[in-house]
Structures are given as C-alpha cells and as structure tokens.
Known about the structure:
Blueprint lengths: L1 E3 L1 H28 L6 H18 L4 E7 L3 E8 L7 E7 L3 E9 L4 E10 L2 E4 L3 E2 L5 H21 L1
Antiparallel strand pairs: 1-2, 2-3, 3-4, 5-6, 6-7, 6-8
Amino acid sequence: MELENTKKASKIRTVYMLIPLLAVAFVASTYLFTDVKDLKYILITFIFLVVYFVLMAIPGLYFVSFYAGPDKIRIRYKSLAPFRTSNNSILIKSENFRKYEIKTSLLGLKKTLTLFQETPGGLARFPIVSLTAMRAEDREKISKALDLILAINMAAK
C-alpha cells in the first residue's frame, strides 16, 4: 500500500509562501505609492512575519509518502515550513517492525507517528513523523497497514 499527501502539501506550501509575500508587497506598496513614510509599518510587518513563521512551525506540517509492503515499511517526509529543506526517510524490514504509536497533541490538532524496530541491541525508536497534513482516512489506512504487519509478525513467531 502506498499513500502520499502531495496535493495537500503543495497547497500548504503555497500558503506558507504567499502570505509573507503579500505582507511584504503591502508594506512596499504603502511605502512607495503613498505619502506615508513611517517606519512603523515595516516594524509591524517584520513582527507579523516572525510571529507567523513561529506559529506555522508549531503544528509541524510535513509532506509524507508512506509505503507498507510484505518486505519493508518506508516513510519519506519533508517539512513544509519555510527554511527547512531536508528530506528524511525511514526504512524498516517488515520482519523487524515491532510497534508504532500515533499520538495526538495541541488539543487534537497535531498528530504524530513513531515507529519501533527490533535490533540486536534492543528496541530502536525512529524519529517522530508528523501526520497532521494527512487526511483522517489516510491516517486510518496507515494504522490498519501497520496493524496488519504486526499481526503477520506475531503469527510468524
């Protein structure tokens, strides 16, 4: 099974970049085309942009590509927040997968997934992946796919 939130991620990314662009364009046009030459508009816009970027980073919106098959589980993810450009990936052999956690925080607004793998040194925990930008149906499909892999692993023991 393969899922990804490409359409929603591109819309979120567009909004992330459009709002700051509009704020800067508003201040620039006010400064250039009117007689108002007060620097308080620039300061207010700067403060607005700082607050905006901080608030947009809190929910942790990610592009997520999820694959679960008989041989492996693969999650590729990338933050949609500005100034974060790293691509990340998690790859687990299905037979080594032991458990997962889907947690909800920020009054139900933020949803995260954590995967655990069996290693010779014990249980290894992978970094948290935010599923906030995914549809509820897709989160449910991910949960069912992971439950199925866990059931197959338990039956194989």
